[in-house]
Amino acid sequence: MMKDVLENVMIDKVARNFLQSPQKRNKIHEADAELIDTGNGSDKYLAVTTDALVEEVETRLYDDPFLIGWMLAMANFSDLAAVGAEPLGLLLSLSFPSSQDERFIAKLAEGISAACQRLNTFVLGGDTNQGRELFLSGCAVGLVPKESAVSRMGARPGDKLYLTGPAGLGNIYAFLKLSGKDKLLKGSFYQPVARTEEAKIVREFAGCCMDTSDGVIHTLDTLMRLNRCGFVISSDWDRILHSIAQQVCRDQTIPPWLVLAAVHGEFELCLTINPRNESAFLRAAANAGWNPVLIGEVTTGMSVSIKTPDRIVPLDTGQIRNLSSTMGSEPERYVRELFDVARKAGI
Amino acid sequence: MMKDVLENVMIDKVARNFLQSPQKRNKIHEADAELIDTGNGSDKYLAVTTDALVEEVETRLYDDPFLIGWMLAMANFSDLAAVGAEPLGLLLSLSFPSSQDERFIAKLAEGISAACQRLNTFVLGGDTNQGRELFLSGCAVGLVPKESAVSRMGARPGDKLYLTGPAGLGNIYAFLKLSGKDKLLKGSFYQPVARTEEAKIVREFAGCCMDTSDGVIHTLDTLMRLNRCGFVISSDWDRILHSIAQQVCRDQTIPPWLVLAAVHGEFELCLTINPRNESAFLRAAANAGWNPVLIGEVTTGMSVSIKTPDRIVPLDTGQIRNLSSTMGSEPERYVRELFDVARKAGI
Predict the structure, then answer these.
(1) Across the interface, which of B36, B126, B132 has its CB nearest the CB of A124?
(2) DSSP conformation class of B147
(3) Are residues B176 and B115 in the same domain?
(4) B327–chain A Cβ distance below 8 A for any pair
């Protein structure tokens, strides 16, 4: 099932013949970060993950070096948060062309540093190279108590589906930026913070968890394939979408659900909660001054649907995901195709 | 002092404003891998490192995908070995152009897998992207008992200077490959193995340790600057250089010491041993069926010299290192300049 998604084909092509470590607690695709039992009587797993910014920089979706640095760090820390891990820090693997502007490098480092400080964590080290192209990769390490580690596995029909916060800012940012409408952006509304703090509560209650780095629908498509379950999303957009996303959808006549469907996410955590644990979860969140956003529920059958006031509309999430793999480098065509999907689905 | 070396200028430019983690046990530049105290009562440090193959691939120094994969893994594991750490595994951050040949990817993965199996370790996970250029980065994690962790700090005048094995294959490989004389290569004589096993003995006895990934002279230059000490290298090339390196030096009339001076190393460990511990170190090595190679000793005064039968020749190692930073992308000019340095030094 995972192989029906083009981006997984590449991963499997590389990983096909790799032996699995007996110390690794998750299988391939089954967690945002790898969970390693380091032995030695530790009551925590080591969580490790790596993430590079490639398409986002090449398409100039990110062109502000501070934002690039911030996102490089946050994307990695978000993967740690999704397994419940608290960061020990970040390693950087950076390659700059010899012509690279010094101010760019300084601002990039500033963004990385600011992101680490925001989460009370650190750059631990790294490797810098000179190469033909700019290349930016990170690797985050962290720890999670063994008994609270979460993965993408564990969604059960009947579970409630939550986000750590309202969705849609990632795709709104991308839409405005890539369609040259970024004059409409007031200040830097897109500067996501990995949900490291919320993760400490999430890991105590969630069935499964995955971040929305590639958008909510992409996340649900993955969770559907792994857990062989379905999801029904509410169309209560006032509650589910960030107020800026709602505003831009109105102004630009974008069908609201498309800001869940496109591939540039907002780095919220998406999690399932057994109804038995729901009130305790919400109480713990409220005590921490945090409001999780209920967006739907887990169902039997493998599909992702949107529940409108009068019907339930199934989405072809495989097709939606593969649009981003085949057209990710042609943003205008990608957006056109997404609008087409919305028109055909009638929502 | 570290800032007199061009490659460190870039690192410092990026790292200038990063806060240091209170859990990190080494300062910047002072260890091949970062040593992290994870707390929690563990008697081991977490060791983490990241290394990308950029110049080696762009210059086509490595063009066999199996070797590229092998080196990507081994370069990272070698950094772990240099702090005494045993690997938990490797993360991969890979970016391929959409046109990338499938056979290339399969062979690359084979090389990575073979290197991991050679060291009884594993690929733990990774991130694959599609980008304009091929980009290959790794990140290795491991553990080292706290009381035996080693770093680049700790060389003392009077210490003996050892390598884990004879030197020179890295630069001989590079010389033949880049000068188009690789028809002289019989089979794959360059496929270094990180000294993970030897490191378990090294860490019990060494004052300081650093791998020779950038060649022996580059390593000694770094150790000199960090420890504010000097090194005198013996010119007993029959013992110090690998037999293939000796043979090629004779056939191609290369001054033997240049295979220590150029920037493509052999991934041995370079370490210092207090004379008091030398016999115990050699006994432990012999019991493990391993012969460390004595190459010189640590002196007062900050210089790296070669001791010939009739004199001691000081080397301008800063100049030698900076040649590789400024001309690394023009191999022919780089080799010419190195021969020039040898002629002027008269050795």
Answers:
(1) B36
(2) G
(3) no
(4) no
